[in-house]
Amino acid sequence: MTEPGNERLVARLSHDRAALLDRCRTFSSGIEWASAHSALADELVRGVVAEMAAKTGGLPAMSIVATGGYGRAELSPYSDADLTIIPLHENDPEIDSAIRLIFRGLHDAFHDFGITVGYAYRLIADAPGLDAESMTSLLDARLVAGEAEPMNQLLALLWETFPTGDFLVAKLREREADRTRTNDTPLAVEPDLKVGAGGLRCVHTANWMGMAIGDRSRRPTAAYEAVLRARNLLHVASGRANDRFSRARQAEVADLIGADMLAMSSALAENLESNDHLYQHAVRELRGRRFQLGPNLWAANGSLRVDDVPTLGDAAVAVALAAEIGIEAGDFKVPSSEKAKGNLLLQTISRGEHVLRTLDRCGLLASMLPELQACRYLMPSDSSHSYTVYEHSMRVVRNLDNPPEGFLSEIRANLASSPVLFLAALMHDAGKAIPGERHSITGEQLVRDVSQRWGLERSIADDVAWLVREHLTMSHVIRLRDVYHQATAHDFAETVRTPERLSMLTLLTWADIAAVSEEAWTPVQEDLLKELYDRTMWVLESDASDLPDPDLYRRRLRRAAEPDDQGPKLAEFVDSLPGHYLLSNDSATIYSHFGFYRKALEGEPSLDLQARPETGSSELTVCCPDASGLLNRILGVIYAFDLSLHGLRASTTQSTPHIAIDVFSVSFAGRPIPQATAARFIQGLLAVLSRDRTVEEVLTEHGKDPARRQEDFRWQFVPGDPAILEFTAPRGRGMPYRLSHMILREGWNVLAARVGQWAGYGTAAFYIERADGEPIGSDQVERALAQKV
Questions:
Q1: Sign of the alpha-carbon torsion through 452, 458, 460, 463
Q2: CA separation for the pair 739, 718 (Å, rounded)
Q3: What pLDDT is recorded for position 420?
Q4: Alpha-carbon distance 655 to 658, whole Å?
Q5: CA–CA separation, 254 and 252 (whole Å)
Q6: Fewest CB atoms within 10 A around its CB: which of 405, 450, 517, 715?
């Protein structure tokens, strides 16, 4: 509630404001109207402050400053009035109570006045550490009440310590982000009048950049006046703060001023384009001016000039800023190494590929990271790679700069430790230059050396070293583990430990694989990566220490089935399902499989083939009475039709008879199976399942040798319940079929499988258990594999 002493003032000014809003359409000048509106707000601030001073017997020495649009005296009808309070003496014992009193009084008064007031509190000593947004607001500062001295001291210190290069880069980035978010051309039908291309922010930014290099603020142009007037009228028509000039609002504004809507909008587009040209000219002009980028480093006429040999850190920062502004940087002599202050070099390399390429051309990157330079011409042993180790690493950074829309871009946007990720991206393969040990291990030691040389904090060094050591782990999991199995996410959570490391490793995994070649990253991999990320993040954030309980899912499904006339049969089906199946499928899938199950009980196999365009694959569900060799026969038909197998989830009910419910992820030439091929494939698979034909006959008919053995392979056994048997072998679609022969021969059950390709080889992992459900021992596997496949 407004203080009694201010009620009359607020009532009068509110009346004047209402009259000013009514007359907005009669003002031909947007600045003239906004200036009159700002003057009313000024009078309100002065009145409230005077009342508080009288009430308390005087206020401590302070400046009450208008900033932003209010500071420019361009307060649109429903824009916030931003105020900053700057005390002269920060240790004054009365300052805290005085500021609280003023904030409360201004808040109540502006609320009754009809607009929102925004507050900031700045100490004079804060000036050197302000971020770009705070510095920008103070560039338009204007004293409204109180004493001028605190504001003058703060601004003097601000200009004395002004980080010109960082500020310019921040403004250029901000402008680009705003244009991307709203409209990137001034010729849009529904433009954003504030921050879109050609909006008011174009002129503001041109002025701010000019002030940063010592120019005076530009006088408003006729185009700027016209856009500000349109914005004022848009606020009046909307009855609120609104900057998007939609077609509906254009019609309202045109009616308000008695103009033709299309003619008004066309004239506005011309003025927006003029503002955009002004901004683009300011950017070009900036690149030809002289200003300081760092100690002894200057931008001059579009090039970086060096007055004296700087430190490695200062030179790197200056070159990085120059690159982002668009200024050329040539070769110059710098120290070969140094222990930089804090994270200066780390922040520099996180500016992205363009900056890194510039640092490389100047010879600075080689001085910063000689370990990476050693990989410049190093050819990878893996034939699937398209670039040298050095170039591959730079392209990993390129990917991190521009993740695709979706969950990867969301992770990138929310990531706090991007400098850590960028150093890991550059160094993840550097260990390949050292023969002998695995490159992830040698790379970890190289990163430790870099961290010590750069003087990085221990926690940062540990995170970078961990990322380099584990950079292949997540790709291994999505290639060779069933990400839908309940234990996979829990095991992986034990590896990553924190949500931050999970996010960084997810991005690095994608960026690394996608940089191998244009074909390396597939929609199937992205789908599996997202599944593993989501499930692991749930484990980490829920602090779950135990595996999910399948019986909980059984009870829920039973309860859902009770009202249904099929309830008893569905309940029997649910009770017969193995735990891993219940934890890997949602209720809709289970209900769908129940329909297949009922047919299978009558001896009728069900085949369901659904295209999954988003993953470039098809999902095949096979439901039929279980029998010895069933999986091998299905894999044989998949092989016969030249389909690529990506994954398998196999389940068998405990009912009598046992019913197999197997779900396969398959593709044809990297895409969902074409209709004609799908029809022939289903026909061939039904013939094999119904015993009308043998799998050997189908394979032979399609030119495949059913007796061919898998002679060349490596294997690894991971004990557990279930156990995991991993294979690596030369690429070939027949590998899963041939490997399943060994599993069939031993009488083991396959619960799930993952099949893929990596480093020029085919990979496969089978989740297996004995026929009686007991775990398989490593000695059994060794005996079986000694016989070859």
A1: positive
A2: 17
A3: 94
A4: 5
A5: 5
A6: 405
With 0.90 as the threshold, say if the pTM is over it. no
What gap in Å lies between CA 739 and CA 756, rounded to an integer? 14
pLDDT for residue 598 is more than 90:
no
With b for 16 or more beta-carbon neighbours within 10 A and e for fewer, the 75-91 pattern comes to: bbbbbbbbbbbbbbeee
41: CB partners within 8 A, 6+ apart: 66, 70, 75, 81, 110, 113, 115
Task: Of 388, 411, 384, 382, give the one whose Cα is nearest residue 399.
Answer: 411
List CB contacts of 36: < 8 A, sequence separation 6 or more.
Answer: 20
Distance between CA 448 and CA 459 in Å, rounded?
12
**Torsional sign, CA 382, 385, 386, 390:** negative
- Phi/psi for 545 (5° steps) reads -100, -20
C-alpha–C-alpha distance, residues 530 and 540, integer Å: 15
Alpha-carbon distance of 481 to 488, in angstroms, equals 7
Q: Count how many residues are written for the chain.
A: 789
Q: What is the mean pLDDT of residues 149-162?
A: 95
Q: What is the mean pLDDT of the chain?
A: 88
* Matching residue, tokens 């190289």: 446
Alpha carbon distance 145, 59 (integer Å): 11
615 and 524 Cβ atoms separated by less than 8 Å: yes
Proportion of the chain above pLDDT 70, given as a percent: 93
In whole angstroms, give the CA distance from residue 785 to residue 742: 8
> Is it the case that residue 551 has pLDDT exceeding 70?
no
Q: Give me the pLDDT at residue 339, please.
A: 55
Integer CA distances (angstroms), 590 to 258, 595, 623, 685, in order: 64, 9, 12, 23
Question: What's the pLDDT at 484?
Answer: 81
Cα 335 to the center of its chain, rounded Å: 36
| Higher local confidence (pLDDT), 559 or 692 | 692
The runs of H, that is alpha helices, within 709-767 are 735-746
What does the block give as tokens for 90? Answer: 């920060």
* E strand residue ranges, 301-447: 303-306
Taking only the tens place, the pLDDT of each residue in 502-545 is: 999 999 999 999 999 887 888 888 888 999 999 999 889 886 55
Query: What are the C-alpha distances in Å from 612 to residues 369, 523, 606?
Result: 44, 10, 19
Name the one residue in this structure whose structure tokens are 């210190």: 157
Q: Which residues contact 555 (CB under 8 A, 6 or more apart)?
A: none
Tell me the average pLDDT across 64-84: 95
Cis preceding linkage at 548, omega within 30: no
CB atoms within 10 A of CB 2: 20
The alpha helices in 565-706, defined as continuous H runs, are 567-576, 579-582, 587-601, 630-640, 675-689, 695-701
